[in-house]
Amino acid sequence: VKHALLIRGGRVVSSVAIRQADVRIRDGAVIEVAQNLRPDGERLIDATGLYLLPGVIDAHSHQWEPGFASRPDFRDDTTSAAVGGITTIIDHPLTRPEVLDAAGLRDKAELGERTSLVDFALHAGVTPGLLDAMDGLWAAGATGFKFFTCESGSALKPFTDPSDQRSVLERVQTLGAIALVHAEDQATLDENREQLRTGSAIGRGAFWEWRSPETELAAVDAVLALAHETGARTYIVHASLPESVAAVAAARRRGVQAYAETCPHYLALSTEEILANDQWVTSAPPVRDRRRRDVLRSQLGAEIATIGSDHCSIPRASKVAADPLASLPGVPGNETMLPVMLDLVHQGVLTPERLVALTAEHPAQLFGLSRRKGSLKPGLDGDVSLVSLDEDTVPLAGKTTMAAGWTPYEGRRLRGRVMATIVRGCVVVWEGKVQVDPGFGCFLPREHPPIDF
Ligand SMILES: [Zn+2]
User: Fold this and answer.
1) Distance 105 CA to ligand 1 centre (A)
2) Beta bridge partners of residue 385, listed in sequence order
3) Which residues have C-beta within 8 Å of that of residue 210, sequence separation ≥ 6?
4) How far is the CA of 87 from the centre of ligand 1 (A)?
5) Which of 87, 103, 377, 382 has CB atoms 3.0–4.6 Å from 425's, for a disulfide?
């Protein structure tokens, strides 16, 4: 029977419970979750001692197709996603052309279906002057509208002016959509840069002084105030500061539909470690100090809504720069996202149930995918991230499938390991080896409005 699987003897995790159960998948969909299911001609997988997570959704991915002559493209980045246990990616619009209208979205979806190994959805972009395209993008199945409050390094022009920010949020509110905001304040960035330039010789730490905590917090506060005024659903992408997460939580108490996403690198790395080890792990916003990292970890239990990798395969050569402010920000991280999070589960930072909320249920609900994705229930897609909490993962540049060819977790022993990645009942990756042909992945248009929680 095609795409028919019986996964036996494992522990099935939801956001509320872990239970011993077998999972039967047929024609791509889960049909039964119960104990002691009898085989009926399916391929059998023995999951004794393993955990079945609902397929992990990486709601923050940057692959570079279309528009970039070289890698990484859909094939590269969905390979490393799948090896890392991710069954769905939601790609951001910073490809070239940027995804700024319905035709652009459809073109990118078609391109993705040629070579993607896992299912994928697409966030749209918004830039000042192009707000009229939002209706068409939403109708074409975009999952959200990304905009920047600072220079993006792409043709996606930022909304630096508060009245422009208000206009885009008003549109988002009218559509019943969700805004995804890169929140760093351009004026503060400019001031910081100016001060660094007029000072004496600058070291690598200058990147962190430039993109200071104040830079992020100023933008987060301003955007949340506008979200309050306009009633627009607002999702802060890659919140690096516990203060940002606390601001989102405070806005929610005032009735704002606000959400905070954070990324594995903010939870697993620290400025001290990066600078001491002479690493060039630059990102925008950057990894913060150890104290903030620890507070951010404590917010995983309630205030943080989702985890996204912000995977971006920037080669190391583009990061190491004579001028630290010229280091190209971005961290390769889809292959390591789930292992890093499993290690945090092992450390007791969060529960397996909460991990499922952050990486499957919440992104499926917010981005209109929950009719098919986000939980292991009859009728939904048979997407499973099959993991061990007893075995280790040791990320190594020489072994990674990430196109950038390096990892910020080089040599680190992470407790937790991805054993298999299953999409619609098909084993896409088994113990690190790809089992399907490029093009197996399908485009997922948003199927419902965001579900608030
Ligand atoms: Zn990003």
Assistant:
1) 18
2) 53, 421
3) 189, 192, 193, 196, 325
4) 19
5) 382
CA of 143 to the centre of ligand 1 (A): 15
pTM for the whole structure: 0.97
Give per-residue pLDDT as tens, 354-411.
Answer: 999 999 999 999 999 999 999 999 999 999 999 999 999 999 999 999 999 999 999 9
Residue where the block lists tokens 């966030």: 123
d(CA 168, CA 177): 11
Mean pLDDT of 28-33: 98
Residue 222, phi then psi, degrees to nearest 5: -65, -45
| Residue type (1 letter), 203 | G
**Nearest alpha carbon to residue 89 among 340, 421, 379:** 421
Distance 62 CA to ligand 1 centre (A): 6
| Residues 196-222, mean pLDDT to the nearest whole number | 92
Q: What does the block give as tokens for 200?
A: 């004496």
303-333 burial, b for 16+ CB within 10 Å, e for fewer? bbbbbbbbbbbbbeeebeeeebbebbbbbbb
Tokens of 332: 């390769």
Instruction: Report the C-alpha gap between 322 and 130 in whole angstroms.
Output: 37
CA 60 to ligand 1 center in whole angstroms: 6
Tell how far the Cα of 182 is from the centroid of ligand 1, in angstroms: 8
- Which long-range CB contacts under 8 A does 203-211 form with residues at least 24 apart? 203/324, 204/275, 204/280, 204/324, 205/271, 205/275, 205/324, 206/324, 206/325, 207/282, 207/286, 207/324, 207/325, 207/327, 208/271, 208/286, 210/325, 211/184, 211/284, 211/285, 211/286
Contacts of 379 (CB under 8 A, 6+ apart): 29, 30
Alpha carbon of 50 to ligand 1 centroid (Å): 32
Nearest-5° Cα angle at 223, 245 to 319: 70
**DSSP state string for 135-148:** HHHHHTT---EEEE
Who surrounds ion ligand 1 at CB < 5 A?
310
Distance in Å, CA 30 to ligand 1 centroid: 32
117 and 440 in contact (C-beta within 8 Å)?
Answer: yes
- How far is Cα 349 from Cα 304, in angstroms, rounded to an integer? 13
Q: Which residues pair with 19 in a beta bridge?
A: 12
